[in-house]
């Protein structure tokens, strides 16, 4: 132990010197790049203010057409009922759009979730009114919100990065085109975390988005603006993207539903750790309706890399008993008391409903996180990420990651060696960032082999138990703002299924109880290191906040995943309703 104590003292001396040197060097190198970034950000903030004024003006014009409009009954309608009323002309397109414009502005004032107003929604509304009834799509007249990254003609898609400001999209993206063809009316874009690699929701352009359930908490990320807007009723359907839980964490933190689909089932975005598009909504039926609309031949025509696999209604509507695997912990991050309780509660409800529930254990979680997940995200040792941040202001949610990436490899290796004796998880993270160990483990050309090997190992275990679906904890409850950067590995409850490329969805099942909060006082974690301590601090003070579970299926089985989610949602609802 004296040697470890000596090393820790040495680290106390060397680490600040190293970090100061790296910061000084980075500041010197980026000095000439930062002026353009800083000049674009105030202009972007001013453009947002102007856009929100135009949004208010449109709401006022629509309100004048129906001065007696009461938005409350409209805002209380679930998506399925809203579409029925719009298709039957029982509600006007103007009344619905007006109601959501007004409500979205109220929510934004409270939680700072909007980045842009899509002015073209007014023109689109007028075009929809001219359609024959037979020409109306599955989402006819539904106002929808879009995560900042979705391309809309004439609007920026920033990823929270200054270099993408003032570069408006030349055309709508494929998903936006399909949604519009189905009658949806995109009306706002929502906030994200910088670079989309944090599960907080903050960037230097648009600031921090807050969780409407508790304004000291984050809504999650990177699709946090969507989660916050939906949770407060400012949107009825939203589109996010998911790289490591970016749809599912906001859904879980904010108490709504969300699903990430198999890569290529909808438009596929990134190789390696699979980034996909997906919807967030108030309930599972709304997610199913959105996928019915998107899984169309039109999508395949616009993007031939997306196979034409229409929504399989017979799978979604089946009522056969399921064989369900479950786990309360991934063996890597100890679940919070509410996370474990949510899985136990759901298992009991499923078992009582006649389903088979079988224990499952995740294989080699630590290896999967450090070598495969982080290895995929930073296969180039962070070079592409640092390139995107050139000339930009680094958001606090990204500073730890960026500082580590900017350290010279030799210093990373030295620090990794020292941390091995103090905090092994810090050491493993640094080793991954500089490719220490097997050179193939973090090399882009070799990673697909290791990923495929792990995926097949996971599927073999699944098949050996003859499972239909899998139930796991989500990540709950919502973290305090700023804490996602301190305990990033906890998000691997969700990120694992990006690595595996499995469809996975979130269903709220309970809320944090006073007993959960009492048990949290005894939380120590599996490693008892700084990350475990930060996790405990991040989730405290959460009585009453939402707690969800995660429902998982094998690749290309979105309909089965949704069917499982619907079963969980129905059982929980029936339990809550008085007999």
Arithmetic mean of pLDDT: 91
Helical region count? Answer: 22
Report the biggest beta sheet as strand number plus sense, adding barrel if it closes. 12 strands, mixed
Terminal Cα separation, in Å? 62 Å
Q: Can you count the beta strands?
A: 14
Outline type: globular
Please state the structural category. alpha/beta
- The percentage helix is 40-55%
* Weakly predicted, low-confidence segments: 1-20, 22-33, 438-442
Radius of gyration: 24 Å
Strand coverage percent: 5-15%
Question: What do these coordinates show?
Answer:
The chain is of the alpha/beta class and 579 residues long. The protein is 49% helix and 12% strand. The protein has helices at 2-65, 71-75, 79-87, 93-111, 121-129, 174-181, 224-231, 248-254, 284-294, 297-302, 313-316, 337-352, 365-377, 383-388, 396-406, 409-419, 424-434, 447-464, 492-500, 514-520, 530-539, 558-576; strands spanning 114-117, 143-147, 185-190, 202-203, 207-208, 237-242, 257-260, 268-270, 275-281, 323-326, 356-359, 469-473, 504-511, 546-552. Strands 1, 2, 3, 6, 7, 8, 9, 10, 11, 12, 13 and 14 form a twelve-stranded mixed β-sheet that branches. It has a two-stranded antiparallel sheet with strand order 4-5. Helix 12 links the parallel strand 10 (323-326) and strand 11. Helix 1 (2-65) packs across helix 16, helix 7 runs parallel beside helix 8 and helix 9 (284-294) packs antiparallel against helix 22. The chain is globular. The N and C termini lie far apart (62 Å). Mean pLDDT is 91; it is low at 1-20, 22-33 and 438-442.
